[in-house]
Design goal:
Blueprint: H1 3-38, E1 47-52, E2 60-61, E3 67-68, H2 70-82, E4 85-90, H3 93-102, E5 107-113, H4 115-118, E6 121-123, E7 129-137, E8 153-157, H5 161-164, H6 169-175, E9 181-185, H7 188-197, E10 202-206, H8 207-217, E11 220-236, H9 242-258, H10 263-273, H11 288-336, E12 339-345, E13 351-353, H12 355-360, H13 372-378, H14 384-395, E14 401-409, E15 415-426, E16 432-441, H15 443-449, H16 452-492, H17 501-531, E17 540-543, H18 544-561, E18 565-570, E19 576-579, H19 581-597, E20 603-611, E21 614-621, H20 655-665, E22 669-675, E23 679-687
Parallel strand pairs: 1-4, 1-5, 8-9, 8-10, 18-20
Antiparallel strand pairs: 2-3, 5-11, 6-11, 7-10, 7-11, 12-13, 12-16, 14-15, 15-16, 17-19, 20-21, 21-23, 22-23
Helix pairs in contact: 1-2, 1-10, 2-10, 16-17, 17-20, 18-19, 19-20
Length: 690
């Protein structure tokens, strides 16, 4: 089709569009107010409430409220054919979306079709236009790639698909870990105005708007283009007119797009491709205009091509220099971190190994063929299955990242332990296209570790041997000590004959020392059995109230010798429990003994209650108390707070440690609250049924 036919077609289509717009204006001015006043339809035409916002050249609302642009004018053609009346509801982008959510409009123009929005709204199936997001900068700021947005102020349109949806600028910045400040505005005009005024350093608009208005605002277009989006009409999911509107819009759009001479293509040319119409009319010979247009077009194209080539050459040179510096920095960073880099193209099969990758295995870079087979040949056969499994998990999407440890053969025949980490690069469809990773030599780390493990096992074996030795020796020592205590008792009872006062005194000292030594040996025997894993607990039913009363009765004489008040508070519900009677009694006796030993005046109290399925046993006193700084070492074996040579209180330093170990063996816990000079409170929690 030549220039005359194009001009004629454009003129015919423009007349048709103008007629539609004039008809709409008359309807709105004359009939609209009457309809609103009477609230009674005058004809069978359905009135479609259409949400519009200012986003030229796709949709535009001037100060007088007149709506124009590609989408409204296309909708007018469809509405006239279908017999609809269109009533526009102007607002901002977010206001229009809110109205669509609330069902206050029946249709909204120029809405990006995305998966998240598909859950919120109904869309017609036929795409009106495909658009992209584009990054612009203010004059004097040059950006050639996404990482160069680091630290910039970026203006965006609030809730735009190029802002918030997957593949939008927020998503891209997050994926590339770029730190930038975002300024949210209500329209693309405000975004460009922000760049012109210096409020923002960079801004994101759709490509159609950018190409139309970039020169007017004096902004710079960058090579960053992203997020191709289909633009359609959006409708409320449950709107009463939605099924009818969707069906009619799609039917007419398909018809218009199938006809290359239809008004659809005229509107595209008018709003997206054409220059503004000139007011002056020049009469000339019929052959002159085509000739001038042809010559002028060639000159313009030639000049434009030269300018474009020079600009692209400058951009390419800068980009190549930036890439070279980036690669140099990356290589230095990898060398400093002792990491080797590999990069595998999953589409072409090409593989890259960095020089460090080769030298880590004793090779020069020229000796390593850049193929996947090289890695497979150097990989230890026993590790191939685990490596393939890790790679498959990553490629299939079961894991976002790849990590594996394996062995590789060094040039000298030795084995190198390697830690490999990698991440996937996907295309816009989510399909993996590259996998990029690093290799770290962990041979020395592994050798120091499997050695650390051996040392740990030797230490644990020695500790078990020590505990077993102490358990055996402690048992052997108890027999003669019991004999000493027994025969000393016989002598003190004068069964073997009379004693002088001095002899009685000396024998009493022997018996006291023997009992103290036996107590120490018993404690050592218990702690040794626990550490050696030889201490067994049994489960039997017994009366806990009876056990508490007997333990207190045994300890009461010693307390009364010191003038202490012994108190017992056992809740009525405390009765039969299922646990190890001997070990529960041992815990209570130890705590009672300590409470009496470290209390010079006041009282010692034992209380017991139930808490759900647990028994709460408490022993408290008004004794010397414990400093807060000493509490962490309270349950450590052989640790005593008063540990000097002149200490006042005797003891092994094992009692509380045994209480803690026994409590844990019985499935419970032990804790303490204490204040220096005010007393202590030990709380044991044991399950009612072991």
């Amino acid at each position: 089709m030549g220039p005359p036919e194009c001009a004629e077609r454009r003129e015919r289509d423009c007349r048709r569009i103008a007629a539609v717009q004039a008809s709409r204006t008359v309807r709105h001015l004359l009939i609209g107010p009457l309809l609103l006043a009477l609230s009674v339809p005058l004809c069978a035409q359905p009135t479609v409430r259409v949400g519009v916002y200012d986003n030229p050249p796709k949709v535009e609302v001037d100060r007088a409220g007149i709506v124009s642009g590609l989408f409204p004018e296309l909708l007018e053609v469809i509405a006239e054919e279908a017999g609809w009346a269109v009533r526009y509801v102007p607002g901002t982008w977010t206001e229009s979306l809110d109205r669509l959510d609330r069902g206050e409009i029946d249709l909204m123009v120029d809405v990006a079709f995305t998966a998240p929005r598909q859950q919120l709204y109904a869309f017609n199936e036929e795409t009106v236009l495909v658009n992209w997001g584009t990054v612009y900068t203010r004059a004097g700021v040059e950006v050639l790639s996404l990482p160069e947005l680091e630290g910039l102020r970026i203006a965006v349109m609030r809730e735009s698909t190029h802002t918030v949806d997957p593949g939008g600028i927020l998503d891209l910045v997050d994926r590339f870990q770029i730190k930038a400040t975002f300024i949210e505005l209500d329209s693309y005009q405000e975004v460009f105005a922000g760049l012109s005024s210096g409020v923002a350093d960079a801004g994101v608009v759709n490509r159609v708007f950018g190409l139309t208005f970039e020169s007017e605002y004096g902004v710079e277009r960058t090579p960053i283009v992203f997020n191709p989006i289909e633009l359609r009409f959006a409708l409320p999911r449950d709107g009463p007119l939605t099924p009818m509107l969707v069906a009619e819009i799609d039917r007419q759009l398909r018809r218009l797009k199938d006809n290359p001479d239809s008004v659809y293509y005229s509107l595209l040319e008018k709003h997206l491709l054409s220059a503004p119409v000139q007011e002056t009319v020049v009469r000339s010979p019929p052959w002159l205009l085509p000739a001038l247009l042809s010559a002028g077009g060639s000159i313009v194209i030639l000049i434009g091509a030269v300018v474009w080539v020079r600009r692209e050459a400058r951009h390419r040179a800068r980009a190549e220099e930036a890439y070279r510096l980036s690669e140099e920095r990356f290589e230095l960073a990898m060398r400093g971190a002792n990491d080797a880099v590999w990069d595998r193209n999953l589409v072409t099969g090409e593989v890259y190994y960095s020089p460090r990758w080769a030298r880590m295995l004793g090779y020069e870079p020229r000796e390593i063929a850049p193929t996947i087979e090289t890695f497979q040949q150097l990989l230890h056969p026993d590790d191939r299955e685990s490596v393939l499994r890790a790679e498959e998990n990553c490629l299939s999407g079961r894991s976002d990242r790849y990590q594996a440890e394996f062995r590789m053969r060094h040039h000298d025949g030795s084995l190198v332990d390697v830690l490999s980490r990698a991440f996937l690069v996907r295309n816009q469809d989510g399909r993996p296209i590259r996998i990029v990773g690093t290799h770290v030599d962990i041979t020395e780390r592994r050798r120091a570790a499997a050695e650390l493990e051996e040392a740990k096992e030797r230490a644990e074996a020695a500790d078990r041997l020590k505990s077993a030795f102490l358990a055996t020796m402690s048992h052997e020592l108890r027999t003669p000590l019991n004999s000493i205590i027994g025969f000393t008792g016989i002598l003190l009872q004068r069964l073997a004959g009379p004693l002088t006062d001095e002899q009685e005194k000396q024998l009493g000292m022997v018996r006291t020392s023997a009992r103290h030594l036996l107590e120490l040996i018993n404690d050592v025997l218990d702690i040794s059995k626990i550490e050696a894993g030889q201490l067994e607990v049994t489960s039997e039913s017994f009366d806990l109230r009876d056990l508490i009363e007997k333990a207190v009765a045994t300890a009461r004489p010693l307390a009364e010798e010191k003038g202490l008040d012994v108190q017992v508070e056992v809740a009525p519900e405390v009765a039969e429990v299922l646990s190890d009677r001997r070990r529960v009694n041992q815990i209570l006796t130890n705590l009672l003994s300590n409470a009496i030993k470290f209390t010079e005046a006041g009282f010692v109290r034992v209380s017991c209650r139930l808490d759900g399925g647990d028994v709460i046993l408490v022993v408290e006193d008004t004794g010397i108390g414990i400093d807060e700084k000493d509490l962490p070492g309270l349950f450590v074996p052989f640790r005593q707070i008063d540990s000097g040579l002149t200490r006042k209180y005797e003891g092994t330093g094992l009692g509380l440690s045994i209480c803690r170990r026994l409590s844990e063996k019985l499935g419970g816990t032990i804790g303490v609250k204490s204040e220096l000079g005010r007393g202590s409170r030990f709380t044991v929690r044991l399950p009612k049924e072991l």
